[in-house]
Amino acid sequence: MAQRTGNIWIDGNDAAREGTWLYWTGEPLGFSDWYPGQPNHRDADCLEMYRSFDYRWDDYACSGRRFFICESRY
Ligand SMILES: [Ca+2]
Ligand SMILES: [Ca+2]
């Protein structure tokens, strides 16, 4: 990767039920790419691609400031 950006929010959370990761629509993710040892925070309910984990998944507090990736229809 020529240029690496910071940590990035992607769609996914376990806010409704700890340990059950869903899209914000409520649908199951159907895929995961957790970094070894993650998710590791009960209080962290949002899903990020973490730079130090080579952009694999990390659970993190939703109040954190991150870049984000969205899907749009047009
Ligand atoms: Ca959690
Ligand atoms: Ca974590």
TrEMBL record:
It comes from the Eukaryota. The keyword Repressor does not apply. Residues 1-71 form the C-type lectin domain. Keywords: Disulfide bond. Pfam families: Lectin_C. The keyword Disulfide bond applies. PANTHER family: MANNOSE, PHOSPHOLIPASE, LECTIN RECEPTOR RELATED. This is C-type lectin domain-containing protein. It comes from Tegillarca granosa (Malaysian cockle).
